[in-house]
Amino acid sequence: MEEEQEYFLLGDETIKTKPKIKTNKRRIKIITIFSILFFIGFYSIYKFFINYNEVELIFIQGKSRKDKYGVELNKHILDGIYCIKYDNKESNLEDWKLYTPPCPYLRPVHYPDSIINPVCEESSLQFINFDDNITEIPYSIHLDNISNRLKKWDQWERKNKEGTVYYSDLKVSELVKDEYYPFDYGYKGEDTSNIGDVEYYNNVINSRMDEVPDPRRRRLFSFILFNSEYELLDLYLAEYYEIVDYFFIYEANTTFNGNPKPLYFTRALLETDRYDKFKDKLIPYPVKIILDEDNGRGKAFPREHLARRTVISEGLKAVHARHGDLFFHGDLDEFIKPHVLARMKKCGGWEHLQAGIGGGPKSFKDESVETYFINKDMNVTNYQNGEYNMNYDRHKSIGFESQYFTYSFNMIEKSDIRTNFHPNLAIFDARRSLGQVSERKNLKEKRREYSDPLLDPNFDPYQGYMYTDNTNDLHKGKGYLGEFLRFETSTNILKLKEQDKPVIWESAWHLSSFLPSINHIYNKATSYSHFYEFKVKEEAELKKDIIDRIKSYKYLYGDEVKYKNSTIIVPESYKQGYPYNFDFKYWDEIFKKKDTSEEVQNYLQILLHEIPSQVWKNPICYSYMLDRDFGIKKKLWWQIIPKSLWKVIRFETLEPSVFDELMPNIFPDSFKKEMLEVISKEKYDILLNIDGHIYNITVNEPMKLNEAIEIENN
Ligand SMILES: *[C@@H]1O[C@H](CO)[C@@H](O)[C@H](O)[C@H]1NC(C)=O
Ligand SMILES: *[C@@H]1O[C@H](CO)[C@@H](O)[C@H](O)[C@H]1NC(C)=O
Ligand SMILES: *[C@@H]1O[C@H](CO)[C@@H](O)[C@H](O)[C@H]1NC(C)=O
Ligand SMILES: *[C@@H]1O[C@H](CO)[C@@H](O)[C@H](O)[C@H]1NC(C)=O
Ligand SMILES: *[C@@H]1O[C@H](CO)[C@@H](O)[C@H](O)[C@H]1NC(C)=O
Ligand SMILES: *[C@@H]1O[C@H](CO)[C@@H](O)[C@H](O)[C@H]1NC(C)=O
């Protein structure tokens, strides 16, 4: 999950030490195969136990699980995959030595209508204003509802039949202006709002790739890489469940350094109820890493690149992406602010900055339409790395300007300048996927004997987003290099400026090493691509080194870069949350007047120092993100509350002294009072499993600790 960018940016001259990677030299040898079939957990999984000489692998397999639209969510586990067991011995997830329970209050964050359903035509989206340096006031784009944009495109097209407009020569500073820059969604159909979701999306996922769905109902997908960070994944899913349509989650049965690891996510999904609240949007993608290539900096980075490439190409296929859908890729610790993401999904008016003038696929039913995957006479050339030389977009993706925090929201890389521009978001283009030439490029097409490629089962309608050679990281194949979606935005602000890249201002958090305990941080340090940067290898020594780094605000890897203090701004009111205003007129005024009044400054400070909803809504669960002494000097909630009560504990029923011990001390009393009021009113149906006995408890009233203990004792 670590930063590739450093590699591109720093160049080889900064890498002084040769990579040393501990390899697992133990030879794995099969002795016997027991074909015993087990059914466990809430869903049936078959586990064939296989005896290896030293490491015992188990077989993980899922059954078909289709969602209401017909998407097969278990597509990638139907055939099954092997992995090692938790701690290398047969055990339940809860017995894993690094297991942490989910927050007992974990559920999708429900956002107010103003966030989830903004009035687009009055709203805005902010972009970095490089000319003013980035601490200054951003550009604001006037957003609009997509119905309006469709009409405007129609009018523009009628007037500009011959016109071929490309934005490549216009600067970002021009394209953000509040005037109409045409963008073609490629949609010619009716407003579909009278069709129910099930019918509508069922049709979409079964539609031909050369048909364009209603952009007002475009979907949004998240493609992420997972190692074992359950807490971050909980947070991620809770933050985005209401906004994102599918989460496609990559996890390998070895780390990028090549050490075998359990399939933590896939198993938790199959065997526990941890993800039940999110399950209908979760698609596991467990893989075996085949790449074994040293790029001069170890074997981990090439594997990371390939992981990024395949999580995108396989993700698009798994969710049945169609023209105009949005997808983003980043690491699990890269969080786009939900209010930004919601505006981008729902509202139009920003798309031309990523996809230029746009345009949809042409129908293969029209006989003049060809694909360069079949008709090589179309003379579509490839760049050196094999990517097709076609102009479908202005930039491969749009980046999000992140605050780069480490260990907790208290430590920031640089407080005066942003240093990270991930994750990245792009619009899925069916023309690229199908290998059609861009509508607005006057390429002479030679007619040939025609047949509709979409009727050919061997024609893959996603091949434009795939790469033909994924056995290495040498770019010897042809097609789309998904990892470049991420590399579109450098971490070098001056380079971004020079390249005139559109970057969405102050729009994300980077939660680097936000892990609950020192053991978790140690585990991360030994699994990821930067591992060799540690000079020491012994566990105790490495842990001490890590604690010293945390105490002295130093980054986990590499150079002992010192981080800065950052002050968290929490919402004043638990019920209201942060006061947002993204009204276009408001921002336009600020921009035009270079308004630096106190009121504006205060609002900008909130946007700089706000934290995710799930965190401030559940400060006891995420205490270590708010105060780094938690998990190191101070105890976490699950280190105090007994395991049998993890699922039922109601924090509002705790003794005040225990409550205060667990609650980070950064909230005003009024906030705490409101919080207790709100959480004690919520109702819960809880299935409590104690030693295999299931208790069904409907908690209308908060359950007192002693009542829970009574149930446990009975
Ligand atoms: C990873 O999965 C593959 C495919 O099931 C299997 O052959 C391989 O042994 C597994 N490796 C480990 C370390 O679990
Ligand atoms: C932006 O920052 C750079 C580097 O610190 C500086 O050289 C430049 O003058 C600044 N530009 C503006 C417009 O303030
Ligand atoms: C779009 O905005 C117009 C005003 O410009 C409004 O009349 C219309 O109802 C809006 N449509 C939707 C679907 O929000
Ligand atoms: C493609 O290139 C070949 C060789 O240069 C040429 O003969 C042919 O006419 C070109 N086809 C098109 C469609 O431009
Ligand atoms: C951050 O703030 C704390 C508390 O005020 C202080 O002890 C520490 O030295 C500061 N660290 C840095 C890197 O500024
Ligand atoms: C638990 O009890 C509630 C209330 O009696 C009931 O509605 C619910 O169906 C029960 N759940 C299970 C899984 O038995």
TrEMBL record:
Q: Which GO terms describe its cellular component?
A: membrane
Pfam families named among the record's database cross-references = Glyco_transf_17
Return one Gene Ontology term, BP aspect. Answer: N-acetylglucosamine metabolic process
Q: Does the keyword Protein biosynthesis apply?
A: no
Report keywords, A-Z: Membrane, Transmembrane, Transmembrane helix
Which chain regions cross the lipid bilayer? 28-46
Key word Metal-binding present: no
Matching entries from InterPro entries are given as: Glyco_trans_17
- Signal sequence coordinates: none
- GO terms for molecular function, please? beta-1,4-mannosylglycoprotein 4-beta-N-acetylglucosaminyltransferase activity
Q: Which PANTHER family match?
A: BETA-1,4-MANNOSYL-GLYCOPROTEIN 4-BETA-N-ACETYLGLUCOSAMINYLTRANSFERASE (PTHR12224:SF0), BETA-1,4-MANNOSYL-GLYCOPROTEIN BETA-1,4-N-ACETYLGLUCOSAMINYL-TRANSFERASE (PTHR12224)
Tell me the protein's name: Glycosyltransferase family 17 protein
Which species is the source of this protein?
Anaeromyces robustus
- State the taxonomy lineage: Eukaryota, Fungi, Fungi incertae sedis, Chytridiomycota, Chytridiomycota incertae sedis
